[in-house]
Automatic annotation (TrEMBL), chain A:
InterPro entries: AA_ABC_transptr_permease_3TM, ArtM/GltK/GlnP/TcyL/YhdX-like, MetI-like, MetI-like_sf. It is a multi-pass membrane protein. Its main location: membrane. The chain crosses the membrane at residues 20-42, 54-75, 186-204. Keywords: Amino-acid transport, Cell membrane, Membrane, Transmembrane, Transmembrane helix, Transport. This is ABC transmembrane type-1 domain-containing protein. One of its GO terms (biological process) is amino acid transport. It comes from Lapidilactobacillus concavus DSM 17758. It is found in: Cell membrane. GO terms for molecular function: transmembrane transporter activity.
From TrEMBL, chain C:
This is ABC-type polar amino acid transport system, ATPase component. Keywords: ATP-binding, Nucleotide-binding, Transport. It comes from the Bacteria. GO terms for molecular function: ABC-type amino acid transporter activity; ATP binding; ATP hydrolysis activity. Belongs to the ABC transporter superfamily. It comes from Lapidilactobacillus concavus DSM 17758. It holds the Pfam family ABC_tran. Residues 4-238 form the ABC transporter domain.
Amino acid sequence: MISILTAHWSELVEGMKYTIGSSLIALIGSLILGIIFAMFVISPNRWLRIIGSVYVEIFRNIPLLVVAMFFYIVMPRFVPGLDGFKAGTIGLTIYTSAFIAETFRAGIESVAVGQMEAARSNGMTYLQAMKYIILPQATKIVIPPLGNQFVNLVKNSSVLAFLAGFDLMYQGNLIASTTFKTTDTYLAVGLLYLVMTMPLSYLMRYLEKRWSRLPTV
Amino acid sequence: MRWRKIKQASVWWLLPLFVLTLMLTGCGQHIVTKDVMQQVAESNEITWGVKGDMRLFGLTDIKSGQVKGFEVDLATAISKEVFGKEVKINFVPVNSNTRLPLLRNGNVDALIATMTITPDRKKEIDFSNSYFNAGQAILVKRGSKVKSVKNLTQGTKVIGIQGSNSVVNIKKYAPQSEVLQLADAAQAFAALKSGQGDAMTTDNGILYGLTSDDKSYHVVGGTFTKEPYGIGVNKHQKKFLSAINQALKKLEDNGDYQKLVDKWFGQIAGFDGSVVK
Amino acid sequence: MSMIEFHDVNKYYGKFKALKNINLTIERGEVVTIIGPSGSGKSTLLRTINGLELISSGQLLVDNHDLADPKTDMNRIRKNVGMVFQHFNLYANKTILQNITLGPEKVLKVPHVKAAEDAERLLGLVGLLDQAHKLPSMLSGGQKQRIAIARALAMHPKAILFDEPTSALDPEVIGDVLDVMKKVAEQGMTMIVVTHEMGFAKEVGNRLLFMADGEIREDSNDPREFFRAPQDERAQEFLGKILHVD
């Protein structure tokens, strides 16, 4: 395994760059999309609710690979220039956002109804109430499940390998198939994924602790 | 609270332990040592690793679930030649990533899966004599500006199949072109169709299989490499290997081999029969 | 110009009639208490006034705005009509001071310093100045409710709705909250109070509504007289039970 790491270090590092890049973009993108669609799902507006629910149900219940393949194989006919990295990252973002929307919906709904009523009675608009009262409380609740989503996201970014997205898994596949050292290669790849996800797990755990201590957000 | 601290501390200890485990398991390559000849004689059953997604070579029939193709027929003929007409023959679909572990672990006794004989691979497994003189070619949409591998210059993208020798070759023959590697031929072809690359490259036999599926694509420029396919078996299976080679020789001599070539490649327009020995 | 006017207001939950044909006018400066058995529609009536519940038919004017009119800005109504809840509903993620200043700052756009000054004055009024930087979870129920009243006052509303403000409190702290409410009443605030505190209804309120089965059964401008001799049969029965318990 050490020999794989030393002999193919540059390819593996190159792969990690793509994996981290895709994960970061998808992390930010899916967080934004996830919160927006969570707001849709719980919106007082019926049409937004329908749009939000359909989005969440569709992308939550289709395998990531199918979503990613769709952006890689079908979408380029309408959107030129959608290469493996872009298509995979978009797929990953949308797929993850459906789960994050669900996480946030559950978080928001676990904040007592009275908090919203109080804020509205205080003259705040729906969006102000969300921003100042509901979301800060919901965020604290969703930090642990959100951490799981993010770790899953990094692991799921390996879907890029199927789209020639140059990520760590892709490089691992190439190394395994050229050297024939399948076991060693995937062990090395697994270790490198661990190196990327472990700090993320600990960061989330740290945030969880910190936020539960700090009252105001 | 204290429980949590203990848990955190112990997790960090696990990391080096995990790495150590990885290295230990990585060092001990498990190879099945039991003799295949003897084993098949006892069980009267042989298992081949074949392609499940390669038209003409090994393609799983969706209705029956059976794998059909030139390699499947050839493996059947060889098995009957070596072990007799009554032997039970199993086919397990493999891909570039799974074929070697499956062979090593003894899940399959031999691989006949469009696998090119190369010096590197010979270090890991043994190959039979070549049963198909494949050569690499490129596939493009009809009307494409790319007429041969020489047109794959700076700014072009060529799609290959992960783990195939053809991606190594294309980097030599078209060094300026960006190579995109996809999991299998079906996905590579889909990617070509959706415009992810200017050309697709792999062995000609496979490309001909794709053109029989979609006539708006064709093979251009002929073959530019010689990449003979061989049957792969584990090292230390010398008896089995020589039995395979003898069977191959016999099938060639009695014309059965040519019948299989005609059956699978005879109808392919533009198929260059001379590449088959 | 009256503060609040109900004209033939009905409210249904499916087939259930929560409010039946309500006609009611409340003038500025009135302290109206609403009593009645549970499920009689008291809270529903109160919650229609600031739009937490929507009416099904009829007309409801608050500060001369028709709540059923789509052009009416509910947020503007709510700026002028504060609310105090049974379960306080203090913002759990904000300090006591922030609970009071958030509305003025974000809704009325009052500068922070001025909002904080006003909040401190109100904290003084409710007797909790020393709690300004604590979180709601660190306060007792009685303290929370006094903060909730301060939060409502900070918006300088034209009226405040109280939805059973003492029902969730331990008996020994109810007095503190009622004292604060009495102070607010003495300042001339229009108050509508759904309550089980008969003492408050009798001493502080200058008008009393008795509700049963979604209807206003008795509307008295002399609460003391009401308690002495209720006219409505259901009111007699209700008071009989309460006095029996006492």
